[in-house]
Amino acid sequence: MVTPASPPISPEILRDARRRERRVAWRQTRVAWLFIAPAVFMVFAFLLTPVVFNVILSFTKWQKFTGLDKFAGFANYERLFRVPYFAEALSNTALWVIGAVALPLAVGLGLALLLRNVPLQETFKSLFFLPRVLAPAAVGAIWYYVYAPHGVLNSVVSGVSGVPFDYGWTYSPQTVTPAVIVTFVWQTLGITMVLLLLGLAAIPKDPIEAARVDGASQGQIFRHIIWPLLLPTVLVVTILNVAAGFTTFDLLWVMAGDYPGKRTLSLAVYMYYEAFSNGAWAYGSAVAVVLSAMVITVSSMLAVIQSRVEKAIR
Amino acid sequence: MSLLKSMTALGLMATLSVGSALAADLSLYSDKTPWNAGMTGLAEIASKASGATISLQEVTPTDKYQAFMQTSIAGNNAPAFFTWWNGQQLSDLVATGIAADLTPYWDAAIANGDYSAAQRELVSVDGKPYGVLLNVANWVTFYNTEAFAKAGIAAPPTTWAELMDDCEKLKAAGYVPFNGPASGGWMPFIWFSQLVLGTSPDAFVGLTDGTVAYDGPEVQNAFKVWGEMYAKGYFTDPREADDQLNFVNKKAAMFLVGDWHSGSFAEAGMEPGKDFATFLMPPLSPDVQQSVIVEASPIVVSKAALDANPDLGKAVQAMMGEEASNTLGKTVQVYNGNLKAEAPNATIAADKDLVATLKPRALVRWWEAVPSQIQGDLVAAMGAFMFDPTPEQAQKSMATMQSINADYWANK
Questions:
Q1: Is B191 exposed, middle or buried (0-12, 13-18, 19+ CB in 10 A)?
Q2: Cα dist. A68→A54, A61, A199, A299, B235 in Å?
Q3: Contacts of residue A279 in chain B, CB cutoff 8 Å?
Q4: Cβ B163 vs Cβ B157: under 8 Å
Q5: pLDDT value at position A4?
Q6: Which terminus of chain A, N or C, has less C-beta within 10 A?
């Protein structure tokens, strides 16, 4: 049987159909833009514009009340290497980043492994997570009194040793940074532990069981199965803590408010001090640019490593 | 539609009423918490004279106040009235063009006998006055009369040797000789600048204009003496946040500070002239000229505010009047230099007599004289020494200060 051929579609109908399709697509695009416009506006107005403005500022002579209209070239960047406080702030920031990454990760991983299958694990998890819900400024205020010359820590040391002890933990350049790092670890331990617990929960049980059947020890199971599979989560936690370590300001500002060298405690504090206290707006902007570049570089490197690890696991 | 119209009308009315309220409500910003009562009185006098509502707004401590004011001024949002500092700090501010030239008001006040031409110079930049005087203070050493009596000190010292001798007597009587706080973001400069001044007044001036190095012989000597005094236990713990606590609780026998502090001591229960008196800190060597640091705090008036509301000129006149001065004197025992006003207390009256008798070389305080861009960084290095008063830290602080100082003047 011969089927009758369908009548050819006229070019007008085809044109109309295409026009309609284009109209629908255009309408959909407009609707889509309408929905994302507020977000795009926010990103441009409150994120990208200030970033670009900050970079421009770093090339001006804006100091205190004047100089915004004067081009300084790279003078503000050159100054970073001339003045003594920048190097000190940079080395303290390095210490901060190492402390903020290594300590919460090590202790958080230990706790996560310990609390996986113990009775009352939810209660313990909540207890360790509790400091995370407090505002950093409030945490700083509490720990300020822990470290005060006549505070909790010195009272305990005095009580135990029987000798009056009034060491100024947040007044001495040797102890101020470690003291604040301890507080940071205390506060961030909970979130690190929770993220690692999520990572651990996502690890399939089969390879672990198989390894156990084959007689692998706990250490071997951790080294050869758990750790490689947990590595992507560890890298995410590391990226988050690196960013936090580079940019921590509130804890330092509150806890070390009386320390004369507080401007050198981190690059974030140094940036604030130069811009807002010294009125060196352009120089402060240059510090901000350097700080941002460091955070972006380190975070990008870690992100690349993370994607390679994920690919290797797959 | 009628609902829409009503809503629009209400919105407009609300906007207009808020706008008019903002136009009439003006602020007097200050970082001087202990003087709040006096400043409030001043704001009331200014409000009454001008018809505007001027209220006191407080931002503390000093470093935060400076940050706040810089951002306000940079954002073209300077308050109508605000306390500031004279010297280099005022010059920087005047360069922005935000401060009103108060020449007509000063001319009238001088003609009226309220102030002298010399006092006008305290708040002038290039010959034009840009501030109303809030405080004119001599920097003196307060001493606890009871402590001196218990230590067997009959009269305050007139030479450095006598002062050191008295310190030993005070220690033997159970007192720490000097209250030495490092609080507020500025106090570390007090002893540093005093010891340089006592070594060489010319070097003190040179430090503020870049001609003397912060690691030069005069500064080396100042740090040496400062360190020796710490080693002998002449200072209280610099970590004490309440700057006058150790003086008013009689732990420390002396306190080097501006005589505007007498009001705070009185508020804490000490009677001026009876519980405490003052003397001028002698130079470190008899062949060095006796000097005194004069601190003058201006209230700056925003040019924009004065241009927008010429009636604020009446507020300026009122703040320069005798009534305003007496209000400050009676409430917080601060003297703003008005020649017709009474001295707020016996101590300030005695200081005026002391300065008139000794005729010391009067110098602008280091804080106001030093370039404000490096002021905070230099104070931080001085503070570092107070927390670790060792020769090693002294060298480190001097090297840091000189590095900052040299960098500033080389790139100015």
A1: buried
A2: 12, 6, 49, 32, 44
A3: 66, 70, 372-373
A4: yes
A5: 62
A6: N
**CATH architecture under which domain B138-293+363-410 falls:** 3-Layer(aba) Sandwich (3.40)
Give this prediction's pTM: 0.78
Partner-chain contact A258 B183, CB within 8 Å: yes
A145 and B CB contact within 8 Å: no
Task: Identify the DSSP state of B60.
Answer: -
Query: How far is it, in rounded angstroms, from Cα B7 to Cα A81?
Result: 60
| Burial status of residue B16 (CB atoms within 10 A of its CB: 0-12, 13-18, 19 or more) | exposed
Q: Which of B330, B364, B398 minimizes the C-alpha distance to B192? A: B398
Instruction: Delimit the domains of chain B by residue range.
Output: 2-135+296-343, 138-293+363-410
CA distances for B202 relative to B118, B273, B280, B288, angstroms: 21, 33, 18, 10
For B229-273, what is the HEC assignment? HHHCCCECCCCCCCCCHHHHCCCEEEEEEEHHHHHHHHHCCCCEC
Nearest to A128 by CA among A175, A60, A194: A194
Give the length of chain B: 412
Cα-trace Rg, chain A:
28
**Does A150 contact chain B (CB < 8 Å)?**
no
**Which residue in the set A65, A263, A277 is minimally distant from B92, CB to CB?**
A65
- The 10s digit of each residue's pLDDT in A214-231 is 999 988 998 999 999 999
What sign does the dihedral A119-A121-A127-A128 (CA atoms) show? positive
Q: Would you mind telling me the total number of residues written for chain A in this entry?
A: 314
| Residue type for position B399 | A
pLDDT digits (tens, 9 = 90+) for B123-158: 999 999 999 999 999 999 999 999 999 999 999 999
- In the CATH scheme, what is the code of domain B2-135+296-343? 3.40.190.10
Predicted-complex ipTM score: 0.71
CA-based nearest residue to A285, from A50, A45, A52, A55: A55
The strand pair at B176-178 and B252-258 is best described as parallel
